[in-house]
Specification:
The complex is a heterodimer of chains A (269) and B (319). Chain A is mainly α and 269 residues long. Chain A has 2 domains: 49 residues, no CATH class; 202 residues, MetI-like (MetI-like fold), CATH 1.10.3720.10. In chain A, helix 3 runs parallel beside helix 6, helix 3 packs across helix 7 and helix 12 packs antiparallel against helix 13. Chain A starts with a helix and ends in a 5-residue tail after the last helix. Chain B folds into 2 domains: 59 residues, no CATH class; 225 residues, MetI-like (MetI-like fold). In chain B, strands 1-2 form a two-stranded antiparallel ribbon. In chain B, a hairpin with a 5-residue loop joins strand 1 and strand 2. Chain B is mostly helical and 319 residues long. In chain B, helix 3 packs across helix 14, helix 11 crosses helix 12 and helix 12 crosses helix 13. Classes of the chains: A mainly alpha (269), B mainly alpha (319).
C-alpha cells in the first residue's frame, strides 16, 4: 500500500515531468497537423500529415543546413577533444615551469561566455578573414576551459604506474598519451563528445553573427529566419523545429545515463 | 599572465615530437618539451579567441569603429554616451530584475526537484531524464515553441485559459508580463541542469548523518536545515555563481529574447546582452557596444570576487 505522502510525491513527479516535456510534444503535434488544424487544442492530430516536413525539405535547402551543422559540430568536437585531452594530460601530469600559471590563466576564462565577448570576437574574426567560412564557424568554438578543466581532473586520478612502466620501456610522451592515456579516458571523452556536439548543434549567436552567406547557414539560424519568412505558418516552423530538435533529443535519450553522470560531478566537491 | 605563458609556447613550437630525441636530452628536458607542446595548441587558441577578445573588449570601448573597420580614438566618449543613453539604463534595469528573479528561482526549483527525485528508483530515473530534457533542445526551438504556445487568443495557453473563463493575455506582447514570461521560460529550460548539480551534492552527504538525526528525534524539516543545507554549501556556492553568470550573460539571454521579443514590448525584455548585440550588429556601433560589454566584464568579475568574499571562499554557513 502506498502512503499518502509517497503518493503525493509520485504525483508531483509525474506533473513536473509532464510540464517539462509537454511543450516538446506540442511541437511535434503541431508539425503533424494540417494548417487549418494547427491551433486546435487536441494533442493527437485528427488528420495527421507529413506535408509540413515535405515542404521544409523541398522548398528550403534544409538538408544543406543540417549537413553544415553536422559537419561543424563534428569537427569542433573532434578537434576540441584531442586538444583538450593533450592539454589536460600535460597540466595534470607533466612537470614544466609555468604550468600552474598557465592553468590559472586558462581557468580565468572559465566564466567568460561567448555573448559577452561577441563584439570583439566578431571584429577579430573579421580581421582574420574568418567571416562566412567554415573555419570561422569551427575554430573559435573549439577553445573552452570547461573541457580542459574536466579532463585535467580526470587525469589527476589516473594511477601513475601505467605511464612509468611505459617510460622505462623508452616510450615518448606522445606515445604514452596516444597508447595509454587516450584509451583510458574513453568514458569521459565520450561524455564530453556528446556535450560538445549538443552545444554546437544548438548554438545560434555565433553562426548568426559570422555568416551572411545562406550556403553556410547552420540549422538554428535557418529556423530563426524561416520563422520570419513564414510568419503565421506555424506548422512549417514547428516541422522545421522538430527536425532540428529530434537528433538532440534522441541522442540524449540514448546517452542520458552518461550525460547525467558527467553533469552531476561538475559541481565543486 | 596569459601573455607570458604564450611567449613560452611559441619558443617550444617545434614540429618534432617528443619521442626519442637522442641521448643528449635529459628525461627532465624531454618532459618539459612535451609539456609545452601538449599545452600549446589549447593555450594559444584560448589566448587568441577568448583572452584576446577579453582584452579587446576593455580597450575597444575607447574607439569609434566604422562599418569598414576604421578606428578613431574617442577617449571616454562611448562611456559618456552610455551615461546619457536611457535605453542603456533601461537594459541594465531589466538585467538586474532578470538576475534577481532567476537566480533565487533556479536555486529553489533546482534544489526542490533534486530533493524530490533524489531516492534511487526506476521511477525517479525517468522523472530526472524528463526534467532534464528541455536542456537538450536548442534555445531557438525553445523560443519558437513557447512563442506559439503563448500567442494571443489562439495559443494553447490562452485557449485553455479562456476555457476556464480567463481573459486572453498577451504573455509576450504586454510590457507588464513579457519579462516575467521570459524568466519563467528560462527557469523551465535551465532547471534540469541545476537539479543534476544539486543531486551530485546530495549524493555526497553521508546517509549516517540522517539516521543519527532521526534517532535523536529530528524531523525531516529539521534535518534539512541542520544537515542538508549546511553540507550542501559548496554546491550552493557553485550553483549561485554559475546561475548568476548564466543570468547575466548565458546564451538564453540572447537567443530567447532574439526569437521571442526582440527586446520589446516597450524595451521591457531588453537584456543587456541583447542591447549590446543590437548596437553592434544592427546599428554598426561596435565601439559603443564594446564599451557596454566592458562594463559587463567588470561587473562579472566584481560578482565573482564579491561572492568569494561574502562566502569566505565558498564556505556557506546557515543559522
Amino acid at each position: 500500500m502506498l502512503q499518502p505522502v509517497q503518493l503525493a510525491l509520485y504525483l508531483a513527479g509525474v506533473i513536473l515531468a509532464f510540464m517539462a516535456i509537454a511543450p516538446l510534444f506540442w511541437m511535434v503535434s503541431m508539425s503533424l497537423k494540417p494548417s487549418n488544424e494547427v491551433f486546435a487544442t487536441n494533442l493527437i492530430p485528427r488528420r495527421p500529415t507529413l506535408d509540413s516536413f515535405v515542404y521544409v525539405f523541398t522548398q528550403v535547402d534544409f538538408a544543406r543546413y543540417l549537413w553544415n551543422t553536422f559537419f561543424v559540430s563534428a569537427m569542433v568536437t573532434i578537434v576540441a577533444l584531442v586538444l583538450h585531452s593533450m592539454a589536460g594530460y600535460a597540466l595534470a601530469r607533466l612537470r614544466f615551469p609555468g604550468r600552474d600559471a598557465i592553468f590559472l590563466a586558462m581557468f580565468a576564462t572559465f566564466l567568460i561566455s561567448q555573448p559577452v565577448i561577441i563584439v570583439p570576437l566578431f571584429i577579430l574574426a573579421r580581421a582574420l578573414h574568418l567571416l562566412d567560412s567554415y573555419a570561422g564557424l569551427i575554430v573559435p568554438s573549439i577553445f573552452n576551459a570547461f573541457g580542459i578543466f574536466l579532463l585535467r581532473q580526470f587525469y589527476l586520478a589516473v594511477p601513475r604506474e601505467l605511464e612509468e612502466a611505459a617510460l622505462i620501456d623508452g616510450a615518448g610522451y606522445f606515445r604514452i598519451w596516444w597508447a595509454i592515456i587516450l584509451p583510458l579516458s574513453r568514458p569521459i571523452l565520450s561524455a564530453l563528445a556528446i556535450l560538445f556536439f549538443l552545444a554546437n548543434w544548438n548554438s545560434f549567436l555565433w553562426p548568426l553573427t559570422i555568416t551572411s552567406n545562406q550556403d553556410l547557414w547552420m540549422v538554428q539560424v535557418a529556423i530563426a529566419s524561416f520563422r520570419q519568412q513564414y510568419n503565421g505558418s506555424w506548422n512549417y516552423v514547428m516541422a522545421a523545429s522538430t527536425v532540428v530538435a529530434l537528433p538532440t533529443i534522441v541522442m540524449f535519450v540514448i546517452f542520458q545515463k552518461r550525460i547525467i553522470e558527467s553533469i552531476k560531478t561538475t559541481g565543486i566537491k | 599572465m596569459q601573455d607570458r605563458s604564450a611567449k613560452r609556447h611559441e619558443g617550444a613550437r617545434v614540429p618534432a615530437p617528443s619521442i626519442d630525441r637522442g641521448p643528449r636530452l635529459s628525461n627532465r628536458a624531454r618532459e618539459r618539451i612535451a609539456g609545452y607542446l601538449f599545452v600549446a595548441p589549447d593555450a594559444i587558441g584560448l589566448m587568441i579567441f577568448v583572452g584576446g577578445p577579453m582584452i579587446l573588449s576593455l580597450s575597444l570601448g575607447f574607439f569609434s569603429v566604422s562599418g569598414f573597420g576604421d578606428y578613431t580614438f574617442v577617449g571616454l566618449d562611448n562611456y559618456r554616451r552610455m551615461a546619457r543613453d536611457p535605453l542603456f539604463w533601461r537594459s541594465l534595469q531589466v538585467t538586474i530584475l532578470y538576475v534577481a528573479a532567476l537566480v533565487p528561482l533556479l536555486y529553489v526549483v533546482g534544489l526542490g526537484l533534486a530533493l524530490l527525485v533524489q531516492a534511487n528508483s526506476r521511477f525517479n530515473t525517468v522523472v530526472r531524464t524528463l526534467l532534464f530534457m528541455p536542456q537538450t533542445v536548442s534555445l531557438v526551438v525553445v523560443g519558437l515553441v513557447w512563442q506559439v504556445l503563448l500567442i494571443d487568443k489562439i495559443g494553447l495557453f490562452n485557449q485553455l485559459g479562456s476555457a476556464f473563463g480567463f481573459e486572453s493575455i498577451s504573455w509576450l506582447g504586454d510590457p507588464r508580463f513579457a519579462l516575467a514570461t521570459v524568466i519563467a521560460i528560462s527557469v523551465w529550460f535551465l532547471m534540469g541542469f541545476y537539479m543534476l548539480i544539486f543531486l551530485g551534492g546530495l549524493q555526497d552527504i553521508p546517509r549516517e548523518y540522517y539516521e543519527a538525526a532521526r534517532i535523536d528525534g529530528a524531523g525531516p524539516v529539521q534535518s534539512f536545515f541542520k544537515i542538508t543545507l549546511p553540507l550542501l554549501s559548496p554546491t550552493s556556492f557553485f550553483v549561485l555563481l554559475v546561475s548568476t553568470v548564466t543570468a547575466v550573460c548565458g546564451s538564453q539571454t540572447f537567443d530567447l529574447v532574439y526569437i521571442m521579443t526582440k527586446g520589446g514590448p516597450a524595451n521591457s525584455t531588453s537584456l543587456a546582452i541583447f542591447y549590446i548585440y543590437q548596437q553592434a550588429f544592427l546599428f554598426n556601433e561596435y565601439g559603443y557596444a564594446a564599451a557596454m560589454a566592458s562594463v559587463l566584464v567588470v561587473v562579472l568579475m566584481a560578482i565573482t570576487v564579491l561572492m568569494f568574499l561574502l562566502t569566505r571562499g565558498g564556505r556557506f554557513t546557515y543559522g
